[in-house]
Structure formats: C-alpha cells, structure tokens
Amino acid sequence: MQVDIKLKQNEKNYKVFINELDKISLSGKVAIITNAKIAGLHLNTLFSKIIADEVYVVTIPDGEEYKNLNTCEDILRQLFISKLDRTSTLIGFGGGVVTDMTGFVASIYERGIKFINIPTTLLAQVDASVGGKTGVNNSFGKNLIGTFYQPEAVYCQMDFLRTLPSREFNAGVAEVIKMAVMFDNDMFKWLQQADLKNESELSKLVQKSIQLKADVVSKDERERGLRAVLNYGHTFAHVIENQTQYKCYLHGEAVAIGMNMANSLALKLGLIDAKQRDMIKNLMHKFNLPTHYKIENVENFYNAFLLDKKSENDKIKFILPCAIGDNLIKSDVSKDDVLEILSEFK
Amino acid sequence: MQVDIKLKQNEKNYKVFINELDKISLSGKVAIITNAKIAGLHLNTLFSKIIADEVYVVTIPDGEEYKNLNTCEDILRQLFISKLDRTSTLIGFGGGVVTDMTGFVASIYERGIKFINIPTTLLAQVDASVGGKTGVNNSFGKNLIGTFYQPEAVYCQMDFLRTLPSREFNAGVAEVIKMAVMFDNDMFKWLQQADLKNESELSKLVQKSIQLKADVVSKDERERGLRAVLNYGHTFAHVIENQTQYKCYLHGEAVAIGMNMANSLALKLGLIDAKQRDMIKNLMHKFNLPTHYKIENVENFYNAFLLDKKSENDKIKFILPCAIGDNLIKSDVSKDDVLEILSEFK
C-alpha cells in the first residue's frame, strides 16, 4: 500500500510505503540515526534492505528526555566526523523522537540534506513521520525548536510494531482516535469494533490514518489554518507533559487526557453532548488510555497555555470536536469557562 | 534605491532597501538581535524607526567566535522568556554574525517566524544579508549548520557604515571584488578608480553588488549550480579561518587571500594570465587587503578541503576566474596541481 503526500507550497512530493520495504538503493553516504534499543532489535533487518556504498550508524539514548538540542549536537558531530556531504542521506529509524530529530538534523546539516523516515512505533507511523514537522523540546515546552522539512520517503512496516510494548502501541492509537474524532465518523465506528491484533486490520488503520493526515497536511503545509486541527488535545497535553517533565505519560497518553479535557470544554460550549463525550472516553479506555490528570493549580495550568506555539498574541486557540467527525477552532473562549473545566480535573 | 529579490523555488519575494530606512511598522512582538557594540552605537537610531507594540532587545557578544549553537540557544531562551509567538518578528541588527544567526534562530523558533535584516557592516550589506543563507560555525568549520530561510526585507543604511573601522570596511570590499571578478568586468574597472569615501559612490557599490548577488541567487536559491560561484575564494578561506581559529583574519580578508590562491590555480590551468592575476592582487592591495597566508603543511591544508560543504563525494570543487568578469567551476583538478599551488604559499 502507498499513500501519496502532495504539498502545495513545496515542489517536493513523496510517498509513504506501507509494508513495502523491500530494498532501498541510495547513492552517496548514508547515516542511520536510531536508538540503542531499536538498533539491538531491528538494525539487522534494516541492514538487509539498504544498498549503499557507505553506511554509518549513529545511536542516541532512548527517551523523550533526550529530544533536545544537545542530542542534536551529538548527532551533528558524528555526521561531520563521518564527513557526510550534501549528497548524503539520513535515515531516521525509531520512534517519533528519532524521526523528529533526524528530520531536524537533516534540515540544518550543511543547510539541508536528504532524509528518509522508517518509524518503528505506531505513533510515529501514523503521526510523527508524516507532515514535515521536525523538532526538539526545550525547558519551555515540546517541539518549540524545529523546522518544516519534508522527507524523501517514509516506510511503515507492521513487522517493527511486533516488539512494541502494548502501552506504547496504545499511545499510538490515541492519535488515530484523534483523527477519527476530528474528521471521520465512519472511522470512529470502525475503531470501536476493530481488532488490531489482526495484521490486516492494523495495516488498514495505519493506511487510513496516514491518508487522513496527508489530506490535511497537503492543504496546509505550514499550519496556517486547517492543520491546527491536528493539535486536538495537544494544547492540554503539552502542559501536562511539561508539568510532569515528560516522565509520567507517553505522548499519546497525554494527548488522550488532553482530548478528554477538550471534550469537557466542547460539552460546556454545546458542541458535543454528554453521550458523545462518553463514547470517545470509552474508546480511549478500550485501548487502556488514561483520561484523567490531577491539576494542582488551575491558574498555573492556564498560564502555561500562553507559551504554546498555537497561541498567537496571547489568544489561546482551542481545537474542539463538533459531534464526532467534525471540528471547530475557537480563539474566543472566556478564561472563566476554561478555568471551570480545568477545575473538573482537580 | 531598492533591489528586488525574486526567488524561483519559493513563493516569497522581498526587497532590499538602500538608504530608505524611514519607519518600519510591525504588528506583534518584535525582538531586535544585536551585539553589545552596535547596541551602544546605533540602537537609539533604530528605536526611532521601529513602530511596534512590544519591542525586546537581545544582545550577543561581538565576534565570529560566538557564532555557534550555544549563542543561538542563549537567544532562543530569551525569546521564549519574552513569549514571542508565530506572529512575532526578529530584526537582525549588526554584522554578518548577527544577521546569519538571527536568520537561523528565526528559521527554527517554533518552526519558523519572520525576520528582517538591518546589516551594519559593508560585508553584511553586500553579502551576508542577501540570499537566505543562515547559519553558525562549529569546530569542524564555518557555517556548517544552518538553513535556507528568507527575510521579509533588508535595509542597508550608509549611515551605519560611518562608525565601521577601516579594516572591517575593506573586508567588505573583498566580497565586492569577488563579485566583479566572477561576473562583471565593467564593475572591476570602476572599482579600480572608485572613491568609496564619497557616499554616492558607496551606495552605488552596495546597490550594484546586491543586484549582482540577487541575479545569481534568484536563479539558484539552493546552491545547486551557479550560486556556488559566489564561493570564489571561500574554499581556501574556510581552511585559513579554521586553522587560525577565526582569530587572525576578518572573513573578507581570508576571502581575499583565498581569491589570490584560486587565481594562482587559475593561472596554472591557463584560465587567466599573470597580468590579470596581478591586476586583481593590486585591486586588493588598494583596499589594504592581505593576499598571502603561510601554509605550514600543504597536505593538511588539502585534506581540510574535503570537509567543505561544497565538496561532494570527496571531489573538491574549485571556483576559478576566466579572465576578469567570467568564471568556471572545476571538479577535476589533480591533487598534484593543487599541492603545487599551495606550495607557493609556504
């Protein structure tokens, strides 16, 4: 299966290949960026697929806490030592942390070299590896430093998902639920009864999610309007991840909680009803996703929104569901309404 | 005077304004990035021109040795503390170090915000601020980390050049000589008799250089072919700067030496004659530019070329003059020929 990613603002289109990683033939030097764990599990498989003159491997520590500029500098140093040049290609081989950093490093190494993503987690397959968002976190928040930079191709293999702990797998499903709630009621219904242990249902999930995301990204590469909808749940999730220093929740888990918070707000504003909010919550529970986070101080939580990239001129932009399968962006929600909702999570 | 910068690969065009900085009216937050010295000399003047709701000033230390990722992190930290968002604008106010880093920071802050360049050195006016190359140095060489990212506008004011030490002024003239030798014999002749103390001749110089560079950049934004010609002298200069740790020569001075080395190679290959080489050397001496550097070890010097961004697949690309006003890129120069030329500088 293939999904075409077409970008209006950019001359470069590319493909996402699903279960089609046979051989990748590359000219010039190739550097695989991966983490210690994925290297041990799957590097052998990847080596058997890559045809290139010179292949280098750069490993980084496994974990969101290493998604920062220091790690990028470590990667850059190794690439310069290996004398990669403008004809070289990076391959990001791992979860979203690896693929986001590989893209970022590719975008700034000698002002931009090629990269390919081979995501090994469900989250990275359905979300992080499509759309050209690259970046790292810093002490102020998540993905606050980065670029828009497109890969040459993305390869999603179901094989690599077999070794994924179920908690990480489910965190990936959270982003799929997000797409369904925002854009596709049929997909939401399908998810309610889907059996993702079945490999063909799993590939269908990946293909369908990527297609939905591709449609959005192709219409709005630089996140001026529509693409912001993909941040449903994320405004809240970023604060939660920051407050817990990325140590308690996987990204998808924080997004699940964030969606539930957004849904409470949508309910208050009359965009969804209680039954719809509960249906979404139940679907998240089907995949063992958390939906609650104890907010210590609602004022602090509210103020933390203001540093979010999506907050322009101190206006907080909330992305909310309208029933299931449609969405609304609201920048005029009163602070009182938000504080009231946040108080439900105290 | 204005020069239009038109970019084929990019939807965004912009203008360089020469002696036309009257008022700049900006919506959203504005952060001026400058260095301690320029701030003391000219920030007052700039303040009187900027109309914006909130203006922040971030100063960095003055000097090429601070053009690195650490300084960028310092800038980023201050921008996050000031809560700049995607509607904000950075203003790079200083020499090439400041404008290159401002562009780089703008390109990675929240995946890209707007920036304006107001270069205060001749070098930055004629060279660094036009073309969308942003970046920083690292221990492996100059500008090895960066992006292609275009400003909203560039303002070149002759006023700001009055406080420039003559050594720095002349270093800027080196890049103008580069443009003339590569592209424009008439301009070369004009330079031989020009009096740059005269303000109208100086603006003509700035306008003419920017126009020549704009023509090149608009044809080749991403440096696939023609734009490489702008690196005449630079392949050698980067090695010299790196070996002397950016401490002995200003960039333009290193480029002057590099051009003279390239000319020796061009002479050996029969592309120019001895008279032309000497004419170029004499023009550089008119502006007190150095043309000699003592190479300690020619093998080491040669090997250092291989890390240059312009060296692809270990082939060294030499940019050479063909008479005066034309150029040639050669990737097939034998190592022996190069070593022989380098030996002249022992």
From TrEMBL, chains A, B:
Catalytic reaction list: 7-phospho-2-dehydro-3-deoxy-D-arabino-heptonate = 3-dehydroquinate + phosphate
CC cofactor note: Binds 1 divalent metal cation per subunit. Can use either Co(2+) or Zn(2+).
Sequence ranges assigned to domain 3-dehydroquinate synthase C-terminal in this UniProt record: 172-311
Binding-site residues for Zn(2+), renumbered to this chain: E175, H234, H251
Entry function: Catalyzes the conversion of 3-deoxy-D-arabino-heptulosonate 7-phosphate (DAHP) to dehydroquinate (DHQ).
Localisation: Cytoplasm
NCBIfam families: aroB
Binding site for NAD(+): 62-67, 96-100, 120-121, 133, 142, 160-163
Listed EC numbers: 4.2.3.4
Full protein name: 3-dehydroquinate synthase
Source species of the chain: Campylobacter majalis
Enzyme class: lyase
Gene name for this UniProt entry: aroB
Pathway: Metabolic intermediate biosynthesis; chorismate biosynthesis; chorismate from D-erythrose 4-phosphate and phosphoenolpyruvate: step 2/7
Domain called 3-dehydroquinate synthase N-terminal: residue spans: 58-170
Ranges that cross the membrane: none
Family in the record: Belongs to the sugar phosphate cyclases superfamily. Dehydroquinate synthase family.
Keyword vocabulary terms for this entry: Amino-acid biosynthesis, Aromatic amino acid biosynthesis, Cobalt, Cytoplasm, Lyase, Metal-binding, NAD, Nucleotide-binding, Zinc
Cofactors (names): NAD(+); Co(2+); Zn(2+)
One protein family per Pfam: DHQ_synthase
